[in-house]
Design a protein that fits this description.
alpha+beta; 6 helices
Length: about 280
């Protein structure tokens, strides 16, 4: 758990309200001594509770103390002088008891205020927790909706891509030319699709080996015994996009060239070849 998660865990509020366990309190006190951010967050939370308690405080009547003292004085005057020491002691004890009861009544608002402050703080924490839970739920729901939309878009793109590839393959004007691996690369294969009307050339070469860094496959059309570049191919190349327009060809081949292509094919780096 990092510092921000520790601060937002509720341990500061629990400590201030006296609800933290001895172990939790000991850990927090140790962390505050060694981490200024936690200490600042604690002081801020403490100030917030004090402000909340102050805003809800109920002060006792300003004349309550005077009334208590007058009552004590009045009761003292009524004491008769002929009472013996025992009676005087009893009356004094009665005065002290009455005084204590009055003081207790005087302190009662403070006790009520303390209970109210604790209750208000607990309600405040519950409200914060509910709001955080609602916010997290909303965020999670939005994330799930975004994921569903993204998955739906990816599915639609995949379906569209498959449909366009199917259109190329099923086009009766499209000439399919299989390119087989040469002696050095017997497992390599590729397929050239050549539109007999538009003369556009498409290539599907997913079974070719992964190219080294700085290298790239180049398609060649053999026209009248001479190689003509028919475009560059890479793994991320969309097979729906035409590589080149070749008016005439008797064969096609693929070589591995430096990235960007070559003016003439490197014959020792030929991977596949096939006749029309």
């Amino acid at each position: 758990m990092d510092i921000k998660e520790y601060i937002s865990s509720g341990i500061l509020e629990s400590y201030i309200l006296g609800l933290a366990s001895p172990e939790e309190a000991s850990i927090l006190e140790c962390v505050m001594k060694n981490n200024a951010e936690v200490k600042a967050a604690f002081e801020e939370a403490q100030l917030t509770f004090e402000m909340l308690a102050t805003s809800q405080a109920v002060a006792p009547p300003h004349d309550l103390k005077a009334k208590i003292w007058d009552k004590i004085q009045h009761e003292s005057v009524d004491v008769k002088e002929e009472n013996n020491v025992s009676e005087q002691k009893d009356k004094d004890e009665s005065k002290v008891l009455n005084h204590s009861l009055q003081i207790e009544r005087f302190d009662q608002p403070r006790s009520n205020f303390k209970n109210f402050a604790i209750a208000a703080s607990v309600l405040f924490l519950i409200s914060v927790g509910i709001n955080l839970f609602w916010l997290n739920s909303q965020t999670e729901t939005k994330r799930e909706i975004a994921d569903l939309k993204s998955a739906d878009q990816s599915k639609n793109l995949a379906m569209k891509d498959m449909e366009q590839k199917l259109n190329i393959i099923s086009n009766p004007d499209m000439l399919k030319i299989a390119l087989a691996g040469v002696d050095k690369h017997p497992d390599s294969k590729a397929v050239v699709f050549w539109d007999k009307n538009t003369k556009d050339v498409y290539l599907s070469a997913n079974t070719l080996p992964k190219v080294p860094q700085g290298m790239q496959y180049q398609l060649w059309a053999i026209s009248n015994g001479k190689p003509v570049s028919a475009g560059m191919y890479s793994e991320d190349k969309d097979s729906r996009i035409s590589l080149a327009n070749i008016p005439d060809a008797q064969a096609f081949a693929i070589t591995l060239e430096k990235e960007g292509g070559s003016d003439v094919p490197t014959m020792e780096n030929m991977f596949v070849m096939g006749g029309v």
